[in-house]
Amino acid sequence: MANRVRELIESGRVAIGAHAKVPATATVEIAAAAGLDFVRFDPYHWPYDHETLAAMTRAAVAKGITPWVRCSVDADTIRQMLELGIRGFTFPCVSTRAQAESIVAAVDQFVSASGVERREILVGCAIENKSGLESFEAILGLDGVDIMSTGPSDLAFALGETDNTKPIVQEAYARILETAIAANKHVYLSTRASRNEWGKARQWIAKGARVLIIEEEYRVLMKTLTNPHTWTPCEGITQ
Amino acid sequence: MANRVRELIESGRVAIGAHAKVPATATVEIAAAAGLDFVRFDPYHWPYDHETLAAMTRAAVAKGITPWVRCSVDADTIRQMLELGIRGFTFPCVSTRAQAESIVAAVDQFVSASGVERREILVGCAIENKSGLESFEAILGLDGVDIMSTGPSDLAFALGETDNTKPIVQEAYARILETAIAANKHVYLSTRASRNEWGKARQWIAKGARVLIIEEEYRVLMKTLTNPHTWTPCEGITQ
Amino acid sequence: MANRVRELIESGRVAIGAHAKVPATATVEIAAAAGLDFVRFDPYHWPYDHETLAAMTRAAVAKGITPWVRCSVDADTIRQMLELGIRGFTFPCVSTRAQAESIVAAVDQFVSASGVERREILVGCAIENKSGLESFEAILGLDGVDIMSTGPSDLAFALGETDNTKPIVQEAYARILETAIAANKHVYLSTRASRNEWGKARQWIAKGARVLIIEEEYRVLMKTLTNPHTWTPCEGITQ
Amino acid sequence: MANRVRELIESGRVAIGAHAKVPATATVEIAAAAGLDFVRFDPYHWPYDHETLAAMTRAAVAKGITPWVRCSVDADTIRQMLELGIRGFTFPCVSTRAQAESIVAAVDQFVSASGVERREILVGCAIENKSGLESFEAILGLDGVDIMSTGPSDLAFALGETDNTKPIVQEAYARILETAIAANKHVYLSTRASRNEWGKARQWIAKGARVLIIEEEYRVLMKTLTNPHTWTPCEGITQ
Amino acid sequence: MANRVRELIESGRVAIGAHAKVPATATVEIAAAAGLDFVRFDPYHWPYDHETLAAMTRAAVAKGITPWVRCSVDADTIRQMLELGIRGFTFPCVSTRAQAESIVAAVDQFVSASGVERREILVGCAIENKSGLESFEAILGLDGVDIMSTGPSDLAFALGETDNTKPIVQEAYARILETAIAANKHVYLSTRASRNEWGKARQWIAKGARVLIIEEEYRVLMKTLTNPHTWTPCEGITQ
Amino acid sequence: MANRVRELIESGRVAIGAHAKVPATATVEIAAAAGLDFVRFDPYHWPYDHETLAAMTRAAVAKGITPWVRCSVDADTIRQMLELGIRGFTFPCVSTRAQAESIVAAVDQFVSASGVERREILVGCAIENKSGLESFEAILGLDGVDIMSTGPSDLAFALGETDNTKPIVQEAYARILETAIAANKHVYLSTRASRNEWGKARQWIAKGARVLIIEEEYRVLMKTLTNPHTWTPCEGITQ
To answer: What are C185-217's pLDDT values in tens digits?
Structure first.
């Protein structure tokens, strides 16, 4: 099976995904029906049963969207996720080049053992702490790292700030993404489901960002349940 | 435990609820966090496991919102739902006064066996077919029926129409709700999560409707995932 | 597989069982480890998943104790319980001889279709309402009804009393059990886990009762968790 | 949410808890109904599904009792347990001051990332092996360790004894608890559900112990199912 | 979605299916990988959880094979199966024309309510008892009944025989199938996984039978596990 | 409980087992009904829920066959598997004598803590990589390692070959097994369910191999579903 996200971003289009934190196949199927391109699971923070995660992954494969995961930087975990059918990764808090190399090695080992092609898999590293900030150029210089991401709140914490709108934080954020784009890596962005945040995301897309994930599906649902009368249909980016 | 919906509507306020069709406690907890007042399960149409439905009901009780159900008009089913902790009912396609009486009898039997007070339970009858249209005055005349509801699409089908905006359908719809309000029964309405539909619901609230349910949670989620950039926060009815 | 309860009671010994209402195999395994002879499931009132009930039944079979059930008087339900491996039944609120005949017919149909011997199955009828009180002699006269039971609270309700210690209730209770014993039917009794109630049960055992069930396992657990310091080991009936 | 156990023990009262090893929410709900203050899960030794443990934790939170866990000394596991809602910990076989420091650091990291207050969490270290016996004073000297515990059987094994009633074992046991109390740490004790064991626990409570856990719930159930006729109600400590 | 079985049989080819009694999606996926055309679930006899059956149905849809079911002749059950996504039916023990009419009516009601086309659904009636034997011509004369089936063992029982190889049984069997084929109904056959039985099935296929189901998957597995060294690959019918 | 595999192989007979990868108790029960001696689970590669694996293990114990596992070389995992009831192990990619010693130490620690006898447990080491090839004599020299296994494909990869029929691979394979047999270790072999492969397995049995596992149960099922007409009963090894 081809990796839908890779196909889109390598042809210059944008791939949009949803988080699926509710432990059920519903969000996966809804995301596919909504026209999205990938769905991200988070066993790093969330108590999915193994069989539930397997069922959610199978649902994504069945619908032709890319199953994505945030998981620990651990060779056994990476192998198990790939065996399950996961084809996109965001590794949290990647701190050193050596760590990134261990990730790439684990993926390569699966590729040689399974016969799955390497290009069916996307490897993303998230820069979220001080050590990562110092090493990110070495990390993105590594072949086998396909995607880079970061987040203002984590950067603020790493820089000893509490306000993520401070220039020092915003500059670090922009520098990571711009450096990655300049180095021909893909860039992965989060956005809230709101007109304002979407505007910011569009600016990054204009600069070359190609992977976009909407905030957690349970927050999306809660926002609309809190104010269901605000919803207004309009022409979508996703169609 | 008191019935939050009854407390609200008997003091003249509006109770707002959500559908919970995804078989997981997530929607129940999201609905409670969003400030809603009840959550409706649909074992009549949806394949919940018994233990899942029990867990969802317990989650609603734990959060202080009323667990509601659409279920068959069947004495055994009604008893089991009440034993589970369900405290609000919508019975589909109620067709005759005799059927409504059998519902009320099943609820009363549970009340006398369990010690739960009758006023903790809300019984709603949905008028959805031709026979129901003919019998609805007899049905709403029955003590023990607390709530009436109906729907334009079902009425259109019952009246042999395919377009539910036709005057004959709209008049039947309005007549049922108005007759129920005039007879001091509560009225239960569905609304889509959109500014326009919400306006229509407000008109019925102005006329005395007191129970409002937002469209299925998976549709809510899909709409926003399809067009996440349209979401605009504004001042809510629910707060 | 032989029916352990039948083997015990036909050789004049007493069979003791536990309720298993928690939807897990734990109570079944605990009951077997405690030396009990059967375990009773209650899908009539309790929301077990089908697969959970199947697993609990298999656990009982694996441990050599008789899986018992309270279920509706319904031919399809009876067939499914027998197919699952259930070998003891308590049918609630049996009201007429015709109802008892329909139970026996459903069991016989399974026997002829499956090759399981009829004596591996035990059929119990509970007399719990007014109509049952009037028909119980006809019911216990039926070949194929192996066991009779009743309960003071249900009898009180059936007789229009609220106090189940009243002579009229106690007499009805005793009459049903004594008539059944005189007619060579087995008698099934419930007892609370307490020294006092156990004394009453012993009196009925002296008169010929042979099947004894301890109150619900979750009540047993709650009582001891409430007062764990009261528990005193002593020589058991069960050993 | 406040931590009920901390509130009780900081105001000089005793907190009593139950083990919940059966993978279902039943024991949690029974423990709450029995008036207990916390419930302890044991994923260190017991095969709970992740979603089951999440559901049991939510049930404890819903009932206002503190969800407690025995889990590995591992930063990822500690973070996941805290994210799940766990608020009390017993770490097995803590052997060195460095290990205790890593526990405290993992908890502090969650506190700073989540906004949960540190005092909502209770950290307990169990001294169970030889190295722990040598290091326990250094461990209990660490700020951030709230509770100490130990057990005679583990101490016997650590000391090369097979009989845990030997003076050398009993003295080590008493020394750990007394040193902890003298250092203003809380002390956590296990007790069997029996009059005799309860008497021993009361002596420690008189000396300052404040957290008491009743033996495994499945043992409690098995003991009473084995001898249901021994149960005698009396005035409880728990009420 | 088109119905793969109907497409095959209406173009004169044979559709082959497997039973899926193990409550897991594995058999469904294996059957699809083996090149089969449909998979049959049996909630009539087997304790699937509702959510398991939903997952198995989704798995069949995802793989493009037709999800089939044996279920009770009951309008609510038929509606729920269709809502789940089931598109093929075998109704057991159809006894009268009136019963067959009620089946067809329930299917038609779903068709008009859902917008699913009638030809996406296949309705099969099994002749298995005496009354069915008398009524089968009236049943197969009904528009809306697509498929007929029967079985020698059930016929033997219906005819008061214990040996299903007796001419009277074999003749009845042949007469039902031949009459159905002559009336342009499709015929559904079971076969054991063995060279000999397969030969008999081929004879019926030569006469016009078009739907073939292999014996239960757990029997298939058990046979090969019992004698794994007997398995010999050869050219298949299914490829 | 005795270990059925050890009993068989120590008395010179052959123990035959099945893989159980489908996450359900069905395969376990089928393997027992087919007369097999053990069943192997693979949490190393397969996403079983913890409770599912517990249920599958209990099912094996209930049927008297040995529950076997392939799991990581990790002390916590080994302890948890033993606590679950697992009594046979295949450790993948054992590379050094030190690793084998850590396995044996973890098993011994469980034995001393639990009272289970050491001979109820079987420890198998798989030689699958280059380092293992170099160390296998040191590994099989270790008391506490009961069984050795290897596989041609893994050996080929370790030796830098792609064709596992090459003499260098076949010789390495034979050398490991023969050395183990000569050193009085047991040898564990995989075989496909086919007449030809079975013949090869028989040759190794003639040389002293005593543990034989049939290929994955889902492959067995798929092969027969693909070609159900090929199955031919014959006299089995297993009976």
So the answer is: 999 999 998 888 888 999 999 999 999 999 999
Given CB atoms, is A136 within the 8 Å cutoff of chain D? no
Phi and psi angles of residue F35, each rounded to the nearest 5 degrees, phi first: 90, 10
Q: Pick from D175, D237, D168, D233: which is nearest to D14 by CA?
A: D237
Neighbours of chain C (3+ CB pairs under 8 A): B, D, E, F
Helices (H) and strands (E) in chain D, counts: 10, 8
Cα distance between residue C105 and residue F127, in whole Å = 61
| Residue among F26, F14, F13, F60 nearest F40 (CA) | F60
Q: Please identify which residue in the block is written with the tokens 């990764």.
A: A89
Instruction: List the single residue in A76, A83, A113 with the smallest CB-CB distance to F72.
Output: A76
Q: List beta partners, residue A147.
A: A124, A186
DSSP state of E134: H
pLDDT tens for F137-169 read: 999 999 999 999 999 999 998 999 989 999 999
- Which residue type, as a one-letter code, is found at position C109? Q
Distance CA C148, CA C91 (A): 10
Q: How many contacts, defined by CB atoms under 8 Å, are there between B and E?
A: 19
B77 to chain C: which residues are within 8 Å by CB? none
Chains B/F: 3 or more C-beta pairs closer than 8 A?
A: no
Indicate the pairing of strand A15-19 with strand D211-214.
unpaired
| CA distances from residue B108 to A221, B114, C46, C226 in whole angstroms, order as listed | 37, 10, 20, 33
User: What is the pLDDT confidence band of residue B57, given thresholds at 50, 70 and 90?
Assistant: very high
Identity of the highest mean pLDDT range in B41-45, C190-194, E162-166: B41-45
Could you tell me if D135 lies within 8 Å of chain B, comparing CB atoms?
no
CB contact under 8 A, F26 and E31: no
Burial C49-77 (b: 16+ CB within 10 A, else e): bbbbbbbbbbbbbbbebbbbbbbebeeee
A239: exposed, middle or buried (C-beta count within 10 Å: 0-12, 13-18, 19+)?
exposed
Per-residue model confidence as pLDDT tens digits over F197-209: 888 999 999 999 9
- Rounded to the nearest angstrom, the minimum Cα separation between E62 and chain B is 18
Exposure string (b/e) for E5-42, b if CB count within 10 Å is 16 or more? bbebbeeeebbbbbbbbbbbbbbbbbbbebebbbbbbb
CA–CA separation, E209 and E185 (whole Å): 9
- Count how many residues are written for chain F: 239
Indicate if the alpha-carbon torsion angle F77, F83, F85, F89 is positive or negative.
positive
Between helices C75-84 and C97-114, what is the axis angle to 10°? 40
User: What is the rounded CA–CA span in Å between residue D174 and residue D200?
Assistant: 12
Residues A85, A89, A91, A96: is their CA dihedral positive or negative? positive
| Start-to-end CA span in chain C (Å) | 23
At least 3 CB pairs under 8 A between chains D and F: yes
> Torsion angle, CA of F215/F216/F218/F222, rounded to 10 degrees?
-20
Contact of D161 with D168, CB cutoff 8 Å: yes
Partner residue opposite B224 with nearest CB, options A35, A195, A224: A224
Contact B73, B91 (CB under 8 A): yes
Q: What is the ipTM of this complex?
A: 0.90
How many H-runs (helices) and E-runs (strands) does chain A carry?
A: 10, 8
Say whether pLDDT at F94 is over 70.
Answer: yes
- How deeply is F52 buried, as exposed, middle or buried, from its count of CB atoms within 10 A (0-12, 13-18, 19+)? buried
Q: Does domain B4-216 have CATH number 3.20.20.60?
A: yes
Nearest to E133 by CA among E170, E168, E172, E100: E172
> Which chain D residues are within 8 Å of F113, Cβ to Cβ?
157
Give burial (CB, 10 Å; 0-12/13-18/19+) of B113.
Answer: middle
Q: Cβ(B207)–Cβ(A15) under 8 Å?
A: no
